[in-house]
Amino acid sequence: MRETYSRGVSNLELDPQEIRCAAEAGDREVLMGREVPLGGPRAMSVSRTLPGVHRRMIGAWCFVDAYGPDEAAMRVPPHPHTGLQTVSWLLEGSVLHRDSLGTLQEIRPGQLNLMTAGRGISHSEESPKTVLHGVQLWVALPGGSRHVEPGFEHHPALPVLPGPGFEARVVMGSLGGVSSPATAYSPLVGAEIAVDGACEVPVERGFEHGLLLIDGEVAELERGPMVYLPPGRSGLRLSGRGRVLLIGGEPFGEEIVMWWNFVGRSHDEIAAYRKEWMEGEGFGVVDGYDGAPLPAPALPGTRLKPRGRVR
């Protein structure tokens, strides 16, 4: 029997809850991930650390799924997005992206696929059965940019910040004066840090940050949970040998509604997005995918409310 697995580029939960985004307390928080099986009983599970029970965002980052390494086939049917960017980052394997703009693009480890949903886009992702290991992230677009034209970027090579005991590949935003070519709509950072010994990685003092161990051993981290650090640091001290995902940014000051694959500002807006998708309007068509689009789940019985970045 063919195994299929669908990851965080789409939230495939059949009964998605409203994701309430809302203030940091203390010097360090451990954000425990929850295991989410995607794609059926034989599917891989992902560890979802954002949104969490209490903390819903880190900067503009609002969704983090880590998966693998595990052998699986991916088949994510066409589905919609609004008001966000999807950031696909692989450590192992390959994935084929299609979208309603006509894009057909494979991504491999060390490369970035960045899709800006803006006012609305649809896409699919698939791969043959292979070992898959990576992270899927979403970035919420600020109010002034959330209705931009949809777009897609593929960056096969990304700049590197070297330092004593570390090498950081800058995926989004800027780190230590090194900037990614990827389009960002708010002050933020996303980077893969290869740690080799003891090091201190420079960061923006005004950013809040999240650290997720994705490979190897780093003394300050363990596999699974994400560590949240509030603003006020100019450097991150790490030691060991492994790879760490760093995300961060200026604390996101807007309240949002995040439900299924949509980011909006009100219940009525989310309901309108859902209606458009189900009626085949507003999100274009993904050509070349062999299968039907993903239907939207039913809205909850209570009205969705805009929330801040922590509960």
From TrEMBL:
Coiled-coil residues: none
One Pfam family of this chain: Pirin
Domain Pirin C-terminal span(s) in chain numbering: 197-280
Superkingdom, taxonomy of origin: Bacteria
Gene3D superfamilies: Jelly Rolls
Family label: Belongs to the pirin family.
Record's protein name: Pirin family protein
